[in-house]
Design goal:
- By secondary structure, the chain is mostly helical.
- The chain has 7 helices and no strands.
- The chain has one domain.
- Helix 1 runs antiparallel to helix 2 and helix 2 crosses helix 3.
- The radius of gyration is 16 Å and the shape is globular.
């Protein structure tokens, strides 16, 4: 593939699906500088992987897979991003989409809770929120459909319990 074709495809995918990248970055990086670094890392991986896309899945599914794998690898690097496990600090200029999601306290609470999940569970939660089927989630994360269902039920139960705890305080 020629560079001009790769550039066209990458620009088209990024314009149409950057929300996917924002969601993954938002769930895996918690400080402004880390979010910028991770977004750049994910974008570079998508760019490098354009030639590898075979069309076996949809572009959003494929981009999620690249973004999640990149984010999980990024968090494992020498434990340097462990400070990201701390609560969010909402400041101006955070990497966000143009939507009002960042202003809804329920969405902020949900991202805080998702951030505390293990990597695979975090990925499953993000994909579920984005409307992916159990089959697609299983393919992206590398689990069976039944295992995805079990994880989703456990995640929902855990989040409901945390919500109840929050309402009691």
């Amino acid at each position: 593939m020629h560079d001009s074709e790769r550039e066209r495809i990458f620009a088209e995918w990024l314009a149409g699906h950057k929300g996917i990248l924002f969601k993954v970055v938002h769930a895996y990086a918690f400080e402004h500088a880390d979010r910028q670094d991770l977004f750049q890392e994910v974008a570079v991986q998508v760019w490098r992987s354009v030639d590898a896309f075979r069309g076996d899945s949809s572009v959003p599914t494929w981009m999620y897979r690249v973004a999640l794998n990149t984010a999980m690898a990024w968090t494992r690097k020498e434990g340097r991003h462990q400070r990201g496990k701390e609560p969010f600090e909402w400041t101006e200029g955070l990497l966000t989409t143009e939507s009002a999601e960042g202003h809804d306290p329920r969405v902020e609470w949900l991202y805080q809770q998702i951030a505390q999940l293990k990597d695979v569970d975090r990925s499953v939660a993000l994909l579920l929120l984005d409307g992916f089927s159990y089959k697609d989630i299983a393919a992206i994360v590398g689990l069976t459909e039944s295992n995805v269902g079990v994880k989703i039920n456990r995640i929902k139960s855990a989040l409901a319990g945390r919500r109840e705890e929050g309402n009691q305080s």
